[in-house]
Amino acid sequence: MKNNTAPPHDHSEMNHQSIDEAPHDHSEMNHQSSAETHQGHIMSHSLGVNDYLGLSLVLVFFVLAGLFVRKRASAKSSKRYDLFNIIGVERAIKSRYFSFAIRVIPALLFILVIATGLFGRTRANFAAPFTWLFWWTLLVFFVAFGGKFFCAACPWDFFANLFQFGWVHRIQGKVQSLNIKWPRALSNIYPAIVLFIVLTWLELGAEVAYNSYLTALLGLFVVGSTIVFALVFKKRAFCRYVCPVGSISGVYAQFSPLELRTKSDDVCNSCTTKECVTGGPYSTPCPTSLVPFKLKEDTYCTLCTECVRSCNSNNLTLKLRPPATGLAQVNRFRKDETLMAFVIVVLTYFHGITMIPLWFKWTGFLEGYMGLNYFSAFTLLMILILTLAFALYKGFCAFVDGRLKSPNISAKLIYAFIPLILGYHVGHNTMHFLGEGSNLVPLINDPFGYGWDLFGLKGFEPAPLLAHSAVRWIQLFMISLGFYYSVKVLKERTGAVIQNINGTLGQTRILFTTHYVLLFLIGMLSLWFVIQPMVMRSSY
Q: What percent of the chain has pLDDT over 90?
C-alpha cells in the first residue's frame, strides 16, 4: 500500500491548464513510451555523518536484539487494561447510534472522493491524492495501533448497512438480503489475496493512484460490490472472504494492542440467550460469523462492537494488551492466511521498488529492448519479482525443513516477519505524509481542480512538514521497533512449533537461527530503501 499522490507525467500541466478544461481528458490516461516520463519529483537526501551513525546504530541493535531475546526466557504476557474503565467509553460504544456516528464522516469523505473524481479534472483534484496519501496512511496507523477498528468505520460497509438496515439498525429480523450461503470452496481468503495482487497491479501499473477518475471508478466498484454481496449473501461475505483491506488489516491486527474479549468466561458459560451471537433489537449478529464469547484471535473481528451492544450481561469489552501479543499466540495455521502474510511482505517491498530510480531503469530497458510500453514492462517485472520471491521463500523453507527433518514447519513462522514489515510500512508512510501532506491543502481549497479558492488559500505553497533528515530518524526508529518485536514473535513461535512436534533443543536453535538470519537480511533491505531517493510524484 503506497502513498503516491500525483501522476508521473508533466506536472506543469496541473498548474497552467485552463480552468475551462474538460473534466476528463482521457488522453492523459495513455501511458507514454519512455519510463523516464513516469518519474515525478524525487525526494533525495545526501547521506551525512548522522545518517551513517543512525544506520550503524540500527545494525548494532539488530544484533543485540537477537542475542537478548534468544537468551531471555519466554513468557506469555497476561497484562490487559479494560478500556471500559475510562469514563464515557462504554456508554459511547453501547449507544445505538455509535456505528452510524463513526461511519458517517468517512462516508461523506468517500462521497466527496467519488464526486471530485468523476466530475473534476482527472489529474488535479481531491480524489486520488486524498485516497492514496491520506486515507492509506491513516489505514496503516489504525491497523498498527487500533487493529481492525478501521473496518468498524468503513464507508463501504456503511452504505451496505443503509441498504439492509436503514439509517440506524432496526428491529431484529427486518434484514434486506437473500441470505444465500457463501460457497464452501471459497470460504477462505484466497479471493482477497487475488484481489490484493490485482489492485496493486492496477494501482501502480495502470497508475490508478495518480488518476482521480480511475480512483473514483475503483471506489464505485468496491462499494457496489460490498452492497451487492450484502444483499445476496449471508452475513458479510465480502468483508470476511473478499475484501483485501480487511484481510490485510486482519494480519496486522494480530500486532495491534487492541482486542475485543470477554470480561469473565464464567458469565458467558452460564448465559442461555447468547445475544452476542443472535443480535439484539438494535444490533446485528456478528457480521463475519464469529462467536464473540469464544474469540481468541483478531483476524476476522472487525471491531464493529455489535456484540458489545447485544450483550445483556455487559460481559464483552475492549482491552489493551502488549504489542504483538496476537502474533506470538497464534495457535492455528491455515494455508490461505499464511499466504496472505507472505504476500503482504512481498508487496510491501514491491511498492518500495517501484518508487526508486532503479525501477525506471529496469522498465526503461524493457521498453527499449523489447519495444514494450510502460504498463507492459511493469506487468512483466511484477510477475518476475513475485515469482522470484515466492521461489526463494519456498527454497528457504525447504532448506530449513530439510535440516529439521520435519516438513511444513518453516512456513508457520511467517508471522514473525509481520512486525518488521509493519514498522517499515509505518515509517515509509510517515515519510510520504510528512513530505507530501501539505499538498492536500491546495486540493481542499480547490477540490474539483476548477480554479476555486474556497478558503482563500490559492497562494499557499506546499512544503515538507518536517525536514527529511528528521523523517529518516523516525523511519529508522520504526524499523528498529518492528525488528525487535519480530525477534520476540520469532522466539515465541519457534518454541511453540518445536513443542508441537516434540522437537529437540538442536531443532529449536536451527529454526530460530535460520529465520533470524532471514529477518536480519529483510531488515537490511528495509534500511536500504530508507536511504534510496524516492519518487514522490506530488501534484504541486
A: 55
